[in-house]
Structure formats: C-alpha cells, structure tokens
TrEMBL record:
<comment type="similarity">
    <text>Belongs to the thiolase-like superfamily. Beta-ketoacyl-ACP synthases family.</text>
</comment>
<keyword id="KW-0276">Fatty acid metabolism</keyword>
<protein>
    <recommendedName>
        <fullName>3-oxoacyl-[acyl-carrier-protein] synthase 2</fullName>
        <ecNumber>2.3.1.179</ecNumber>
    </recommendedName>
</protein>
<dbReference type="GO" id="GO:0004315">
    <property type="term" value="F:3-oxoacyl-[acyl-carrier-protein] synthase activity"/>
</dbReference>
<dbReference type="GO" id="GO:0006633">
    <property type="term" value="P:fatty acid biosynthetic process"/>
</dbReference>
<dbReference type="Pfam" id="PF00109">
    <property type="entry name" value="ketoacyl-synt"/>
</dbReference>
<dbReference type="InterPro" id="IPR017568">
    <property type="entry name" value="3-oxoacyl-ACP_synth-2"/>
</dbReference>
<dbReference type="InterPro" id="IPR018201">
    <property type="entry name" value="Ketoacyl_synth_AS"/>
</dbReference>
<keyword id="KW-0275">Fatty acid biosynthesis</keyword>
<keyword id="KW-0012">Acyltransferase</keyword>
<dbReference type="InterPro" id="IPR014031">
    <property type="entry name" value="Ketoacyl_synth_C"/>
</dbReference>
<keyword id="KW-0808">Transferase</keyword>
<keyword id="KW-0443">Lipid metabolism</keyword>
<comment type="function">
    <text>Involved in the type II fatty acid elongation cycle. Catalyzes the elongation of a wide range of acyl-ACP by the addition of two carbons from malonyl-ACP to an acyl acceptor. Can efficiently catalyze the conversion of palmitoleoyl-ACP (cis-hexadec-9-enoyl-ACP) to cis-vaccenoyl-ACP (cis-octadec-11-enoyl-ACP), an essential step in the thermal regulation of fatty acid composition.</text>
</comment>
<comment type="pathway">
    <text>Lipid metabolism; fatty acid biosynthesis.</text>
</comment>
<feature type="active site" description="For beta-ketoacyl synthase activity">
    <location>
        <position position="170"/>
    </location>
</feature>
<feature type="domain" description="Ketosynthase family 3 (KS3)">
    <location>
        <begin position="9"/>
        <end position="417"/>
    </location>
</feature>
C-alpha cells in the first residue's frame, strides 16, 4: 500500500559526514583511497600477535587523538571513544551547524558501539590482578560503557535531545542511523548525530575471535586477506575506526541553508531467530529487512542502483547475503552494482554501518562506486556484479546499505539523491 508523502519536517537528510579508518583519517582521504582500491590491512602492531592464528588487522595508524580532542579528556577515555568523538566532530563541522542558533533540546546524539571499551576492560583487569583493587582507575566504568560516545559528544556541543548508545554487534551503526531517522520523523528532534565506533584490535578480543575461527589466517598476505565473495575467502579481518553522519529534517536543513548530500528514506531491522553467529541459510531475516526498508521508503525494486553489502569475506555470510539479494530483487539483482568495502577497511564491527553509510552517501554524491578488491576467483554461489577490483562511474540515485550482527540481527538503510 502506498504511504502518504512525508512532510518536509518528517523527511530526513544527510548534512554532515565524518570518518576515521585505516585508509583515511577524514572523509576525503578515506573516499579517495577507497576509489583507488587501497587496502589498510597489515600485520598487527598494537600488541605482539606472534602466537595468534590471525596476526593481521586493519589498524588506524599514524593518528594521535590529542591532535583533535582535549588531551586530558582523551586520556580518560577508551580508543573506541576517541574514534567516535573525532568522527562526530568532523561530521558536525562538515554540517556547519551552529549550536548558538539551535534549540539544544532538539539536537540529539546516537553513536553506538558493538563492544565498547575493550582496551579499558583489559588494561584495568590487568591492574586489578597485578596490583589489587585500589589501582583500578576511577574512570574505568565511564570509559568502557558503550553509550559514552553519545554522552560525551552531547556534552561537547551542548545537545540535550535524545541520547543513548545502541548495541547490536555488527548491525549497530545502521541501527543507530535508522533509529535516529525515526526520532526526527516522530518529532523528537530536528537534528541527530548518529553512527558507530569500534576499537577491538586488542589481545583478548583478537584471541576470542581467533578461538571462534571467524577470521582470516592469510597472515603472509594481509593485503589480500579480505576477499568478499571470492571463492578463496577464509574469514573476516578485524578493523577499527568510526563513521558518523549528521541527520536533520529537510525543513530544518533548508531553513538554515545547509548543504544536503542526500536523503535517508528507508530503514528496517529484523532478526534471523536462527543462530547466534551464522546467518539464516535461506537469507530470511536479511531479505525481510531489505523488503521492509524499501517499502518504508516507497521505493520499487527496479529503482535501486547500488548496494553496499555487508560482505564480510566469511564463507557463510557472503553466499547467504547473495541469496537474500536474489530473493528480494529477482531479475533486477543481476542489474545491481554491489560492493563490499570491507575488502579494504576490514570489518569495523559496530562501526561498519556508520562507515558504509558514508560510502553510500559519497557514491550518490560523486557518481563513483568503490570496488570489491581481491575478487579474483569466481564462486558459483556468489554470482552477482560485485564491482570487482576497480572503481566504476555510474549514476546512483538510490542506494542501500546492509549490515548483519551476531545474534541474528539485521539492518538495512536506503538513501536517495534529493
């Protein structure tokens, strides 16, 4: 059934972008390196990974948070918060919002994290075991909890609107954006700063993922380890960073003369209700998320031009995601351009949806589609157009971003040129 048109106060647009990744500490550098097919994966340097089955990751290197944030505040907080706050500062600056002209009760923040302050967990537990309870930092709890990016950035800019942190594993970033969209549509806020942040390249976290046998063991060839949809894929590669967007009502953006990138027109969240780590083998949950996201946007299947896939480079995810896309789009699936930028950034877990939303927005803005690199060997179960190995010029008016998380959680968001 056709939905009634949304008013300008309910329509939600993107007016600011922020990104910190292994291949760029700002949006322009990140985007240019994506288009060039640059891979940020290498040997782990943050700790000695010699005895780990996976010794590679996509680290943010040559980056000092104290160049971007008050050093005293930075020292009190976890690395994931560093990424989230600085990406939010970038997005906020890009949007050119002026809080002296805004109603602070109508500006909210929703920056999630799938795991939160893992490094804080580890370092403070080590202090406890080595030196006793009195040596544990009083900043431990605020530093490790997953809502802290939202709280701290609200303090930074004086935003008193909706504020919390979504935790839904690798679907966190997209859930944060979608729920922020709903808040604006409901009238709970005029502006939302939303996305995801993660920093889990730590000894304990990597050991745990190694034990699950979820990550690539292509240690001698890190640049080619993340290979979504390729027949030789053997697991994901951990990444870190943050992606944050500024969303606001169309009416608010127009009233202040903001630069508008595109519109966020649809979103849906579902659950596989199948298995804690493996996607549904029939793609039921993701299929439903895509269908509902498109229905909420009043978008026809043949109108979609591009999908930024979850595309983790794991044997199960890539073939089941391909199946889900075919189930939803039918014959149009073979006309879609699809790419997984995790081939270059690695998998940023709770930050993936934020980063990949930035990718979708830039794709619409620039008419350039970033490739899936390392796609060299055809997999008969992954037989769609994944934009292999080189960027592509294309007119993209409507694009979708998909993310899946442990627990069977699915999220899909739809963006449209204004």
């Amino acid at each position: 059934m056709q939905q009634a048109p949304l008013s300008a106060h309910q329509r939600v647009v993107v007016t600011g972008l922020g990104a910190i990744t292994s291949i760029g500490h700002d949006v322009d550098t990140f985007w240019n390196n994506l288009l060039a097919g640059k891979c940020g994966i290498d040997r782990i340097t943050q700790f000695d990974a010699t005895n780990y089955t996976t010794q590679i990751a996509s680290e943010v290197r040559d980056w000092n948070v104290e160049d971007h944030w008050d050093p005293k505040e930075a020292r009190r907080n976890d690395r994931y918060t560093h990424f989230g706050i600085v990406a939010a500062k970038q997005a906020f600056a890009d949007s050119k919002l002026d809080m002296t002209k805004e109603d602070p009760d109508r500006v909210g923040v929703l920056i999630g994290s799938g795991i939160g302050g893992m490094a804080t967990h580890e370092t403070q537990m080590e202090r406890l075991l080595k030196s006793g309870p009195r040596k544990v930092s009083p900043f431990t709890i605020p530093s490790l909890i997953s809502n802290m990016c939202s709280g701290l950035f609200a303090i930074e800019i004086g935003a008193r609107g909706p504020n919390f942190g979504i935790v839904s594993a690798c679907a966190t970033g997209t859930h944060s954006l979608g729920e922020a969209m709903h808040m604006i549509r409901r009238g709970d806020a005029e502006v939302m700063i939303a996305g995801g942040a993660e920093a889990t390249i730590t000894p304990f976290s990597c050991a745990a993922f190694c034990s699950m046998k979820a990550m690539s063991t292509r240690n001698d060839d890190p640049q080619h380890a993340s290979r979504p949809f390729d027949a030789g894929r053997d697991g994901f590669v951990m990444g870190e960073g943050a992606g944050v967007l500024v969303l606001e009502s169309l009416a608010h953006a127009q009233a202040r003369g903001a630069h508008i990138y595109c519109e966020l027109v649809g979103y849906a969240a579902t659950c596989d209700a199948h298995h804690i780590t493996m996607p549904d083998p029939e793609g039921k949950g993701l299929s439903m998320a895509m269908k509902r996201a498109l229905a909420s946007a009043n978008i026809g299947l043949d109108q979609v031009d591009y999908i930024n896939a979850h595309g983790t480079s794991t044997p199960y995810n890539d073939k089941f995601e391909t199946l889900a896309i075919k189930k939803v789009f039918g014959d149009h699936a073979r006309k879609l351009a699809i790419s997984s930028t995790k081939s270059m950034t690695g998998h940023l877990l709770g930050a993936a949806g934020g980063i990949e939303a930035v990718v979708v927005v830039k794709t619409i803005q620039t008419g350039q589609i970033a490739p899936t690199i390392n796609l060299t060997t055809s997999d008969p179960e992954c037989d769609l157009d994944y934009v292999p190995n080189a960027k592509r010029a294309a007119t993209v008016k409507i694009a979708m971003s998909n993310n899946l998380g442990f627990g069977g959680q699915n999220a899909s968001a739809v963006f449209k040129a204004l």
